[in-house]
Amino acid sequence: MATTTPNGCRRDGIDRRTHGRQWTPEVGWHSWEQPTQDQIKERMRARRPDTEEETR
Ligand SMILES: [Zn+2]
């Protein structure tokens, strides 16, 4: 998992446009799958480690 986009595949985080068919140990060959809302939130949060709690 090199680059993760918030809306990447729920299995491997690959962007829909570049996904095509991918293989993972968990599910084998698959096409892009809609990520869950939690996954999207987590990815957006991971992108910006210095949000929230910046006020002192
Ligand atoms: Zn995938």
Give the N-terminus to C-terminus distance in angstroms. Answer: 35 Å
Number of discrete domains: 1
Shape: elongated
On the 0 to 100 scale, the average pLDDT is 87
Bound molecules: zinc ion
Low-confidence stretches: none
Spatial strand sequence of the major β-sheet: 1-2
Determine the structural class based on helices, strands and strand pairing: alpha+beta
Rg, Cα atoms, Å: 13 Å
What labels describe this entry?
alpha+beta, 2 helices, 56 residues, two-stranded antiparallel sheet, 2 strands, binds zinc ion, elongated
Detailed description of the structure:
The chain has 56 residues and is an alpha+beta fold. It has one domain (1-48). The chain is 27% helix and 14% strand. It is built from two helices and two strands; from the N terminus they run αββα. The protein has helices at 16-19, 37-47; strands spanning 21-24, 28-31. The chain has a two-stranded antiparallel sheet with strand order 1-2. A hairpin with a 3-residue loop joins strand 1 and strand 2. The longest helix is centred in the C-terminal third of the chain and has 11 residues, at 37-47. Residues 9, 11-12, 14, 19, 22, 30, 32 line the site of zinc ion.
